[in-house]
C-alpha cells in the first residue's frame, strides 16, 4: 500500500443526516476546511444517507444550514452516498471476480452458533466463514453476502498524523461483509469507494473511526488504490471529562447560532478546541488558515469550556467592523424569527455600534444593550427603572429640559452641562443618571447616558425626558 504522491489536497466532511448537526461534526468540518483551504485544495461535502430509516431531508437541510452559518464553503454539490449504491456494489463484485472476496452462505444461526462456541472457549468471536475457499461449483442456490478476504497473518499499520503509528494485528481483522444479501453495500465499503472516487487525499475524522481505518485499508489494498493520509482527532468532552452531551448544554450547531454566538467566534473556538498554535487564543480566519496543521492536534480529548467560548466571541464581536456586524445582527434576528430591524432603527444602530459591541459576548447581549434604540415612545419603564422616576426625580428632569434645549450636542458639552446641573442641585451625576436612564431606555442598566443621548439625538432625547417628567 502506498501513500499518495504530492498532489492537490482534497478533504471532505461526511455527516449522516439523522438529526441536528453536532458541534463535534462542525469541528471536524472546520479542521478539514482549514487544512484544504490553507493549502489551496478542495473541501467536499458528502451526505452519508445510506441509513434510509433514519435519514431525513430535514436533517440534511440542518447540515447545509450549519455549514452555511459557520462559513465553511465546499466545492461542488453535496454528494449523496445512497445514490452511489450501484458503484459500491460494482466494486464488491469486482473484488469477488478477482478472488479477493467471496460469497458466504452462512445464516444468522450459523454465525451465532460459531460465536457461542468461541465464547465458551474464550476465543475470538470474529466469524471465520467456512465458505472462504469453497469453489463456485459447490455453492448452493441460496442467499449470500459478499465478504472480503482479510489477511490472516502479519499486521496492519495505520500511519496517523495525529495518533502516530497504530499497529493492528491482522488476526484481529475479520472477513468483513461488503455487500449484504439484499445487494446493498455496507458503510465500510461505501466510505472507501466514495473517498477514492471523490479524490480524497486526507481523511480527517474523529478517533472513534480509528479501528475502522484498518478494515477500510483492506479494501484500498485489494483494489490497488493509494491510501489517503489519515488524521484521527480526539472527541470533544464536557467540562466533567465525559463525552459532550445534552446534559452539558447545547450540542447542536444551530443552537449556538440561535444563542447569538458569532460564527467567527465559533470558528476560532472550535479551531482552538484540540489544536493549538503556541499560546494564541484569539486569532482571525486568515491566521488559522496559515497556521493550521495536523501534527499540532492533541491526542487527548478536548474539553468544551463555555466561558472560553463566550470570551472569544466577545472579542470577535468587538473586533468586527461596524457595517459587517450590523449585517450579521440582521441575519441573527431573521434566523431566530425576530424579524429585521426597521429602517428607522438601522441608522441608530450603526451610530451606536462602537459602544454597543464593547463587552457584548453574544448578539443577544448586544441587542439587549440596544434596548434604548429598539423601544418606541412612550417609553414604559420596567419595575426597577420606575423607582428612579419618583416625584423629585421627575421634577429634576423637568428643570433639566430647558438647559438641554439650547445645548450643543457633543459629548464634551453634554458632560459639562449635566455635571454642572448636578452640582447646582447639590448632588452627584450618578444621582441624575438613574432617572435619565429610566427616561431614555426604561431600564436601570443601560449604556452610558451620554452615548444614548448622542445616538438618539436632541429631539428624541428631549421628547423622552419630557414624557418621563410628565
Automatic annotation (TrEMBL):
Motif 'KMSKS' region positions after renumbering to this chain: 243-247
Q: Which reaction does it catalyse?
A: tRNA(Glu) + L-glutamate + ATP = L-glutamyl-tRNA(Glu) + AMP + diphosphate
Organism of derivation: Lentibacter algarum
UniProt-annotated location(s):
Cytoplasm
Q: Which InterPro entries match?
A: aa-tRNA-synth_I_cd-bd (IPR045462), aa-tRNA-synth_I_codon-bd_sub2 (IPR020751), aa-tRNA-synth_I_CS (IPR001412), aa_tRNA-synth_I_cd-bd_sf (IPR008925), Glu-tRNA-ligase_bac/mito (IPR004527), Glu/Gln-tRNA-synth (IPR000924), Glu/Gln-tRNA-synth_Ib_cat-dom (IPR020058), GluQ/Sye (IPR049940)
Q: Where is the Aminoacyl-tRNA synthetase class I anticodon-binding domain?
A: 329-468
Q: PROSITE patterns recorded for this chain? A: AA_TRNA_LIGASE_I (PS00178)
Q: How does it assemble?
A: Monomer.
Supply the EC number(s).
Answer: 6.1.1.17
**GO biological-process terms attached to the record:** glutamyl-tRNA aminoacylation
**A Gene Ontology term for the protein's cellular component:** cytosol
Going by the entry's taxonomy, the superkingdom of the source organism is recorded as Bacteria
Q: Where is the Glutamyl/glutaminyl-tRNA synthetase class Ib catalytic domain?
A: 9-310
Q: Tell me the protein's name.
A: Glutamate--tRNA ligase
Functional note: Catalyzes the attachment of glutamate to tRNA(Glu) in a two-step reaction: glutamate is first activated by ATP to form Glu-AMP and then transferred to the acceptor end of tRNA(Glu).
Instruction: Enumerate the UniProt keywords alphabetically.
Output: Aminoacyl-tRNA synthetase, ATP-binding, Cytoplasm, Ligase, Nucleotide-binding, Protein biosynthesis
Amino acid at each position: 500500500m502506498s501513500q499518495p504522491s504530492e498532489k492537490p489536497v482534497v478533504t471532505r466532511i461526511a455527516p449522516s443526516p439523522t438529526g441536528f448537526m453536532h458541534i463535534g461534526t462542525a469541528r471536524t468540518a472546520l479542521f478539514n476546511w482549514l487544512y484544504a483551504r490553507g493549502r489551496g485544495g478542495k473541501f467536499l461535502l458528502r451526505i452519508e444517507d445510506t441509513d434510509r430509516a433514519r435519514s431525513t431531508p430535514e436533517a440534511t437541510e440542518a447540515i447545509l444550514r450549519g455549514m452555511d452559518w459557520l462559513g465553511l464553503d465546499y466545492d461542488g454539490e453535496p454528494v449523496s452516498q445512497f445514490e452511489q449504491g450501484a458503484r459500491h456494489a460494482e466494486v464488491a463484485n469486482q473484488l469477488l471476480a478477482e478472488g479477493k472476496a467471496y460469497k458466504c452462505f452462512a445464516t444468522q444461526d450459523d454465525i451465532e452458533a460459531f460465536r457461542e462456541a468461541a465464547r465458551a472457549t474464550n476465543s475470538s468471536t470474529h466469524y471465520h466463514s467456512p465458505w472462504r475457499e469453497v469453489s463456485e461449483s459447490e455453492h448452493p442456490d441460496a442467499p449470500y453476502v459478499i465478504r472480503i478476504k482479510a489477511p490472516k497473518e502479519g499486521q496492519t499499520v495505520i500511519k496517523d498524523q495525529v495518533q502516530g503509528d497504530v499497529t493492528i494485528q491482522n488476526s484481529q481483522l475479520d472477513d468483513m461483509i461488503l455487500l449484504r444479501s439484499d445487494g446493498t453495500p455496507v458503510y465500510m465499503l461505501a466510505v472507501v469507494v466514495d473517498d477514492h472516487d471523490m479524490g480524497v487525499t486526507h481523511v480527517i475524522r474523529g478517533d472513534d473511526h480509528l479501528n475502522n481505518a484498518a478494515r477500510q485499508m483492506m479494501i484500498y489494498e485489494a483494489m490497488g488504490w493509494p491510501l489517503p493520509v489519515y488524521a484521527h482527532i480526539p472527541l470533544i468532552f464536557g467540562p466533567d471529562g465525559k463525552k459532550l452531551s445534552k446534559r452539558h448544554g447545547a450540542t447542536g450547531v444551530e443552537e449556538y447560532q440561535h444563542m447569538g454566538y458569532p460564527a467567527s467566534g465559533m470558528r476560532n473556538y472550535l479551531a482552538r478546541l484540540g489544536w493549538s498554535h503556541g499560546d494564541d487564543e484569539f486569532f482571525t480566519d486568515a491566521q488559522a488558515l496559515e497556521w493550521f496543521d495536523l501534527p499540532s492536534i492533541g491526542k487527548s480529548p478536548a474539553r468544551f469550556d463555555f466561558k472560553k467560548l463566550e470570551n472569544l466571541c466577545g472579542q470577535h464581536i468587538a473586533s468586527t467592523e461596524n457595517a459587517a456586524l450590523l449585517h450579521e445582527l440582521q441575519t441573527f434576528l431573521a434566523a431566530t424569527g425576530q424579524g429585521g430591524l426597521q429602517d428607522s432603527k438601522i441608522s441608530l444602530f450603526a451610530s451606536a455600534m462602537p459602544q454597543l459591541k464593547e463587552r457584548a459576548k453574544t448578539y443577544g447581549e448586544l441587542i439587549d444593550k440596544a434596548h434604548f434604540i429598539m423601544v418606541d415612545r412612550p417609553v414604559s419603564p420596567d419595575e426597577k427603572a420606575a423607582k428612579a422616576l419618583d416625584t423629585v426625580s421627575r421634577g429634576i428632569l423637568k428643570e433639566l429640559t430647558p438647559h438641554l434645549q439650547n445645548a450643543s450636542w457633543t459629548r464634551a458639552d453634554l458632560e459639562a452641562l449635566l455635571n454642572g446641573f448636578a452640582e447646582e442641585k447639590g448632588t452627584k451625576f450618578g444621582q441624575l443618571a438613574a432617572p435619565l436612564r429610566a427616561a431614555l431606555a426604561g431600564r436601570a442598566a443601560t449604556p452610558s447616558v451620554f452615548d444614548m443621548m448622542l445616538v438618539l439625538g436632541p429631539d428624541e432625547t428631549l421628547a423622552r425626558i419630557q414624557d418621563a417628567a410628565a
